[in-house]
Design a protein that fits this description.
- One of its GO terms (molecular function) is rRNA (guanine) methyltransferase activity.
- It comes from Eumeta variegata (Bagworm moth).
- Heterodimer with TRMT112; this heterodimerization is necessary for the metabolic stability and activity of the catalytic subunit BUD23. Interacts with GRIP1.
- InterPro entries: Bud23-like, Bud23_C, Methyltransf_11, SAM-dependent_MTases_sf.
- The chain is of the alpha/beta class.
- It has two domains: 247 residues, Rossmann fold; 39 residues, no CATH class.
- It is built from seven helices and eleven strands.
- The protein has a nine-stranded mixed β-sheet with strand order 3-6-5-4-7-8-10-9-11, with helices on both faces.
- Strand 5, helix 3 and strand 6 form a beta-alpha-beta unit.
- The chain is elongated and about 70 Å long.
- The termini are far apart.
Length: 299
C-alpha cells in the first residue's frame, strides 16, 4: 500500500467487460486492512492443502452459488466472508464472477496471496461489521465461518451484539435484490434461533435450508437470507418432502424424525422401552403411577 493512501478511504476498483464498480474497502467500521487490490492470474494451491479439503470447500461453495439464484451468464460482484486461503473463491472465478474476500486470519490470507488468487483480500473481523459502502455487492457467500461469531475471544466480545452488527452492515452492503448464503455448523437449536432472529432484526428475510436432513454425515445447514422481500426458500437436497426442507425459527428439524413415535423421555416412550426390555428377557422394574414422572429435585 502506498505511503500517500488514507487508511480510512481505500477504494479497490474491479474492472470487467460487463461490470465495473468501486468497493469501499476501509471505512469507520472495524480495523480492516486491504492486502491487495490488483487482479493477477491464479495458480495451483500449495501442496499442503489436501485434495479432500479443496473438494469439500468447492462443493459447499457450489451449493451456496446455487442457493443464491444468480442470473445466468451475468458476471456479478460477490463477497466471500471467511474466505481463508481463497480456495472457495476459485469456484466463484470459474463461474465467471468477481469476488472480494474478507477473513480475520492474516496467516490464511498470506496463503491466499501466495496462491495469487484473483479476488481482492481484506483483513477484517466480521463481528465488527463488513467495511464496504452501501449496495455494492450482488450477493454474499460464506463456508464454515458463521458459527465462529458465537465465540467470545475477548472480554469485550458479546456474541449477540456482534452477530447483529455483522448482519446489519452486510444488509447495507448488498443490493436490494441480493441474497446471502451461509453454510455453517450450528451446535444446537438455540444458535439457529439466535442467527435467524438477528438476521430478521437487521432487515433480512429467509430461513434455514437443511440438505440431506436424515443423514448424519451428509447433513448440511444453509442460512439463506434475502434483501428484496419474502420469497419461498430454495429446495433442499436429499428429501422429497417440502415441509422437512426448511427450518424457519422452529424446532421442526429436531422433531421431524419422531413423527408417529412417542417423544423421547415421555411416559409413553418409557413404557414402550420397558416393554421391549421385558421381551428381551432383561430385568425391568414394574410399571407404576410414578413411571415417567419428573423428579422435583428435592429430597
Amino acid at each position: 500500500m502506498g505511503p500517500h493512501l488514507d487508511p480510512f478511504l481505500v477504494c479497490a476498483t474491479i474492472q470487467h467487460t460487463k461490470l465495473c464498480r468501486s468497493v469501499l474497502a476501509v471505512s469507520e467500521i472495524g480495523t480492516a486492512q486491504v492486502l491487495r487490490s490488483s487482479i493477477v492470474p491464479s495458480s495451483p494451491p500449495p501442496s499442503y492443502f489436501t485434495s479432500l479439503k479443496r473438494f469439500r470447500d468447492e462443493l459447499h461453495n457450489e451449493r451456496c452459488l446455487e442457493l443464491l439464484l444468480l442470473a445466468e451468464d451475468t458476471p456479478c460482484l460477490l463477497l466471500d466472508i471467511g474466505c481463508g486461503s481463497g480456495l472457495s473463491g476459485s469456484v466463484l472465478e470459474e463461474c465467471g464472477h468477481m469476488w472480494v474476500g474478507m477473513d480475520i486470519s492474516s496467516s490464511m490470507l498470506d496463503v491466499a496471496l501466495e496462491r495469487e488468487t484473483e479476488g481482492d483480500l481484506i483483513l477484517a473481523d466480521m463481528g465488527q461489521g463488513t467495511p464496504f459502502r452501501a449496495g455494492v455487492f450482488d450477493g454474499a457467500v460464506s463456508v464454515s465461518a458463521l458459527q465462529w461469531l458465537f465465540n467470545a475471544d475477548k472480554k469485550s466480545h458479546q456474541p449477540i451484539k456482534r452477530i447483529y452488527t455483522f448482519f446489519s452492515t452486510l444488509y447495507a452492503a448488498l443490493s436490494r435484490s441480493a441474497r446471502a448464503v451461509f453454510q455453517f455448523y450450528p451446535e444446537n437449536e438455540d444458535q439457529l434461533e439466535i442467527l435467524t432472529t438477528q438476521a430478521m432484526r437487521a432487515g433480512f428475510y429467509g430461513g434455514v435450508v437443511v440438505d440431506y436432513p436424515n443423514s448424519a454425515k451428509a447433513k448440511k445447514f444453509f442460512l439463506v437470507l434475502m434483501t428484496g422481500g419474502a420469497a419461498p426458500l430454495p429446495q433442499a437436497l436429499g428429501t422429497e418432502e417440502t415441509d422437512g426442507l426448511q427450518v424457519k425459527y422452529s424446532k421442526r428439524e429436531a422433531t421431524k424424525g419422531a413423527r408417529g413415535k412417542p417423544l423421547k423421555n415421555t411416559r409413553a416412550w418409557l413404557l414402550e422401552k420397558k416393554e421391549r426390555r421385558r421381551k428381551q428377557g432383561k430385568n425391568t422394574r414394574p410399571d407404576s403411577k410414578y413411571t415417567g414422572r419428573k423428579r422435583s429435585g428435592k429430597f
